[in-house]
UniProtKB/TrEMBL annotation, chain A:
Required cofactor names: [4Fe-4S] cluster
InterPro entries linked to this entry: 4Fe4S_Fe-S-bd (IPR017896), 4Fe4S_Fe_S_CS (IPR017900), NADH_quinone_OxRdtase_chainI (IPR010226)
Domain 4Fe-4S ferredoxin-type residues, every copy: 74-104, 120-149
HAMAP family xrefs: NDH1_NuoI
Protein name, UniProt field: Unannotated protein
Species, as recorded: freshwater metagenome
TrEMBL record, chain B:
Gene Ontology cellular component annotations, sorted alphabetically: membrane
Species this protein is from: freshwater metagenome
Residue stretches making up the 2Fe-2S ferredoxin-type domain: 7-89
This protein's name: Unannotated protein
Single GO molecular function: molybdopterin cofactor binding
Matches recorded under CDD domains: fer2
NCBIfam families cross-referenced by the UniProt entry: NuoG, PRK07860.1
Domain 4Fe-4S Mo/W bis-MGD-type: 229-285
Gene3D superfamilies: 2.40.40.20, 3.10.20.740, 3.30.70.20, 3.40.50.740, ADC-like domains (2.20.25.90)
Keyword Transport belongs to the record: no
Pfam families xref list: Fer2_4 (PF13510), Fer4_Nqo3 (PF22117), Molybdop_Fe4S4 (PF04879), Molybdopterin (PF00384), Molydop_binding (PF01568), NADH-G_4Fe-4S_3 (PF10588)
Amino acid sequence: MAENNDQPIESFRRDLGLEAVQSAPVQNHGPASIGNQLKGFWVTFITMFKKVNTVQYPEEREGTAPRFHGRHQLNRHADGLEKCIGCELCAWACPADAIYVEGAENTEENRMSPGERYGKVYQINYLRCIFCGLCIEACPTRALTMTNEFELADNSRASLIYEKQDLLAPLRQGMLMPPHPMYPDMDDSNYYKGDVLGAHPSQEQP
Amino acid sequence: MTTEVVDMITLVIDGFEVSVPKGTLVIRAAEKLGIQIPRFCDHPLLDPVGACRQCLVDIEINGRAFPKPQASCTIPVEPGMIVKTQLTSAVAQKAQEGIMEFLLVNHPLDCPVCDKGGECPLQNQAMSTGRGESRFEGKKRLFDKPINISSQVLLDRERCVLCARCTRFSEQIASDPFITLNERGALQQVGIYENQPFESYFSGNTVQICPVGALTGASYRFQARPFDLVSTPSSCEHCASGCAQRTDVRRGKTLRRLAGDDPEVNEEWNCDKGRWAFKYVTALDRITNPLVRDASGELREASWPEAIAAAADGLKGNRVGVLVGGRATVEDAYGYSKFARVTLGTNDIDFRSRVSSDEEREFLASHVVGTSTTYRDIDRADHVLLVGFEPEEESPIVFLRMLKHVKKRALKVSAVATKLSIGNEKLGATFLSVAPGSEADAISKIELTAKSVILVGERACESAGALSAVAALAHRTGAKIGWVPRRAGEPGAIAAGAIGNLLPGGRPVSDPAARVDVATVWGVDSIPSAVGKNADEIFVAAKTGQLDALVVGGVDPLDSALSAEALSALDQTFVVSFEIRPSAVTARANVVFPVAAVTEKSGSFMNWEGRAREFDTAVEGSLHRSDVRILSMLADAMGKSISLNSVKSASKEFASLSKWDGARATFTPSTSKSLSVGNDEALLTSWRRLLDDGSLQDGEVNLAGTARKSVVVISQKRASALGVVDGDAVKVSNSQGSVTLPVLVENIHDDAVWMPRNSRGSHLLETLGTASGTLVKVGKA
């Protein structure tokens, strides 16, 4: 039987095109010497008295590295207007096709960002995202950055497609919820230069 | 055909020898070698202008070099020329980089928000032949942005590189010089004339040829990026010109349509209707499921098997008339044609859902189907005669082709019409003014040659005897006849035999050999031999009980000359409707089948030349089916199969029937009749404008914004008699109703009054029950 078994294996190797691959029989060296065995156990023994690296997650947490690639965030200007202009360059750069953006036009009544255009639909599919950060490099307005948040598990596929409201940065001190007009006497280039430092009372809408 | 002898000139570009015809521009000769010289202003269909200076190259002729780099888009080739492009000459490369830097000095850095971003020649060429970094540190020139130069075209002057493509297009191709370069120096900018909006039927082409994002379309603004879009070559469903198009779809929604490049047909242009009227497909009221009228008289949604059974029940064993409509593809029209003959056993079928006549039907059978007058014939014609046809409004690409030759070689155009239209003025047409109804007399007096072309519109049938006069004129002079209907499906429907006197391939119903031919292919014993009723007769027969049921494709009963009869016919009979959206027909139908719109199905149209214009499904995954598939299922349910279960099988079978070498149908000329016109009376004349209240233009507000205003046109004589001037309200009425519109005094026959047929405030067939040739009262409102 032993001789017969060789035949199918050989043909199997041939089918896979493995004929050219060199192989060598495994050599059995027998048991190691007592000295060598003790050397191995010594490593195990001494480790018992070393400081433990394991963290009892989720009860205990350690921070990530500062540049860790976590969940994305859509940032805001200092007065609360969105930085995203809906240009889709992030979607274009994405190697995993995880981002979907639709742009729309800002109007006087409905201004979401400085300038002419804002992102009306913004979705990131975290089932696809590989956290490579190419989208962040592509973003021309620094609207898209990555946070250090990494807990992105969920129990349904749909809930892992993050919508714009899930990704938008929270309003901080001095920010107003868009839509609202631009800072008085400033245009979009002032926003990009960082001239706007907070919301102006006149931007508040009834 | 004689081939012209062309002088070839040999020159050297970047060390490679190339021979091109005399007169070729250097930039074009380089293209032939696959060498791309960057350019913005150069366009193969526009005159050279040398405006952008981006295509600078080093040129040397017979050992004498030009002292400076030259614009290769303005210099024709010469024997012994040695050209060095940016690839081999450091001087040319530096010159091009310098020009690019100059162009970018004032170009804003707003690529991320610009609609052109990603498909922008400026972006691409700045990357390929520009300097890596800008040295400019000053302030960029700023303009207000964007400004609406019409409701559908937006202008962003900051982005403009002053290539003058748009202004040259408007002047040289469309003859709508509403857009021009204003100011000089750094402030030079594209602008529109004051008080004169950029209302051109061809304005969309300027958006397409703009090499930067200076001109953008309002309806595509901020909609997508090129990488979002799936592009499908397609064919325009709006008129019989037959433009090649490109349909761009994202996630099942058509976002834009562009003119395709077909030198034989539309060159690289199309009209604004073809470009922007596609929202009817995604209208919210689309019918998505079959509807069946239940016992209580309400239409309710039903399953496909239930609807098919209900339709089969109502049609089986009954006398049925079939109305196809002028929007069906060739395959669908063929399906209706076969369904009528095989399943329903009748020739009562007509595709003409409009004012029509029996004279026209005979004319189509004897002089149109199977003939081939083409755009090439217009190119070669010595004289083009227009009869019942307004090319700019009814077939814009035919208009552009004639205009091209009017400008290039002063092609003679004559129009037999009641009113001198804006389009015919642009064509410099000889206006042969006639009263509505007396076209025939004028036509019979015209002299043509064998090189002339007579372009006949669908409205020629509205004047009795006009088509007979055209046939006689063509016979007498040898001129070619081209029949140019408005609707895209009409030429294909004649070829498919969706009319009472013809079988597929132009076979006369009355010819026994033709019937045997078709019966053999269809595998049936016989084809009904009696010539079928026309559309008007079908409505009348249905109203008077001679028909029990109607199968209706995309037909608006209000387009018919007998709209009142049509509506009561639909009320009284069992109606099976094939529609995409609710209409006057579906409101009266017993069974409604939802069908696919053009972007959702494959198929083909036949343009006025008889050229097949095939298209593929642009919106993948649509659940809607083509008419022919539903007809095939219905025929199966009725026990008389037509076996056309796909568009492909329909087109294959139609192709096997498309040639007929037997005798053509005969034509019996008819005579005209004239009406006497009283003092306060006038003969009504009208046509549909390109942009009007047509149902395929629904939902396009930007497009509707450039439609021409509705007016009543009367002659100077009548205006003086009524005591009105331009802008005064005038009332046109008859026993059925009245229309009041501002008046416009123009060059129109004294006996006639003109109004748009289906524009805002002027729906003639609906309000007056007539659209042309009848007496109406004209008075001050």
